[in-house]
Amino acid sequence: MTTSRPGTSGGADEAEILAELTAMIRQVLEGYEVEEGEVTMRTRFGADLELESIDLVTLAGLLEERYGGAVNFAEFVADLDLEEIIELDVGRLVGHIRRCLKASDGVGTR
């Protein structure tokens, strides 16, 4: 499977990752209205978007589909305690994705 990563050799910027993550969230919440601008870096997955665990599993699949093995959502969540998972916001996931993409930049084939 070939995955494309955003940006150039320097990796993606936060705005680009946020836009891609917002599209994934909209896909997960298909059938629910997610208004333009509703998803920000401070948007919480649970309290604001009301994502359930099955929704997070779906999001994890979309992240893997988009970024391949470079971004492992399950591994990221495994390092969080329960309170951090409950309060997880989009910005923290964007930061994780960005770090993963920078770490994997130049690894493997393009």
UniProtKB/TrEMBL annotation:
Signal peptide: none annotated. Transmembrane segments: none annotated. Residues 22-87 form the Carrier domain. Pfam families: PP-binding (PF00550). InterPro entries: ACP-like_sf, PP-bd_ACP. This is Acyl carrier protein. It comes from Streptomyces toxytricini.
